[in-house]
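Reposting from the mailing list since nobody answered there.

I have sequence plus structure tokens for a pair of proteins and want to know whether others read the tokens the same way I do. The first protein:
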Amino acid sequence: MRFFILLVITILAVITQSVIAQDYTFRVLANKGNNQLKKAGEAGAINLKAGINLFPGDQIIAVTDAYIGLVHSSGKTIEIKTAGTHNVDDLDGTLDGSTRVAGMYLNRTMNKKDEGNINNNQQEKEGTRSISADIRMYLKDRSKVFGTKATIRWDSEQQSSGYIVTVNNLFGQILLRNETSDTRLDLDFNHPRLANERYVKVIVTSKENENFKSGEFFIERIPPNESKAIQKQFEELRNELPGESSLNKLIIASFFAENNLYLDALTSYEEAVDLSPDVEDFKSIYEAFVAENGLGN
């Protein structure tokens, strides 16, 4: 009996600690600069890092040119860019209401961050293998796209002064041909030559050597009858995430990834990095997604 009582007490203690650990106000998703955290009731301060939970009474001490991306337990997001002391209670007071959809995808984003910066899972998923070629595309063999904009990115085995991105229809007719010195290109599916195409093929070629190229990648625009449910969820999510911020882009990327819309997810990750190009945490989350899904191989 005594052993049983001790066992029950131990289990209750573990459960209590687990509940307390989850009862945070904010969590740090991204941090740039030598920012510090002063815990409630403690004299000293510690270095602020991504993944730290913030509780009532805590204080953030931000340096000049800081960037701190916080996510509330409700799913709302806050960015801190001004130097000085920021009280968690005051930050909490600036938020009103709660989120349902955003909170769900926020938790998934944070779980990916906790799993490590890069997940080297080598298991291939059917229909999602990347094509091996001189130029490695951050695409699946066949990708579906929900949005009207898609960022195409690639890596090259050899340096090139420029690349040619060709978009064909299924009959091999050239719809678009773009030259760029970058290793990315934004496609606008509202372009007159693309607007009426459900399927397109994309190939990237070195400007200097036409034999140095990627494989052909098919992109399918989701037909209206399949996109209604996604559109409804997406609009609900966007209503919970007003404004354009890197944090919101990460949550939207997680939404697309959960719906197997990898190209849309990649585009949102690119936008998150573009909005905060000097914040390494956003880049590491993006790289983790690329590695986990076997892109760029």
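The second protein, same order (residues first, tokens after):
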Amino acid sequence: MSDKKMPAAEASNVDTPSYELAFHVLPTVAEGEVVAVFSTLKDIITKHGGELTLEEAPERFDLAYEIIRYLEGRNRRFTSAYFGWVRFTVAPSEIDEISQEVTAVNELLRHILIKLTKNEEAHPFYFHEALQETVSETIEVNEETAVVEPAADAKDTKAAEESQKDGEEAGEKV
């Protein structure tokens, strides 16, 4: 063991794990009010002694699948939501209380609170940035300007048929 003493600032961070709260805000929430919901979530974390480290503000996007949630006396179907996340450090003893308070936020469609590994902490994933990179451009094509090329398999099939015909014709001549 080393006789070196760790500075107090570093010692306090050793026992404080990092967490991430990822969430979907209901699409029925007005766009201007989404910021208030995000602030509410961050306030819940800081109220319990959490220190915010990184965040991605919620933005609306289409969900990969439909989510059904019982709301206002009936099951409602949602195909889009506002997605965002916030990373923070906090004492593990506060996580249950934070989770209970976040669950009570009625504007959330769903959420997840996870403890980050060192690798996850070092490499945050920015969802909205990645989503923009994958958006492809759609172009309109009409019949007059379209160029149709036969598939590679079709070319190979046609060449094989011609070769077989040539072989059969050669066999008949002999």
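Reply #1 (J.P.):
I read it the same way you do. The mean pLDDT is 80.
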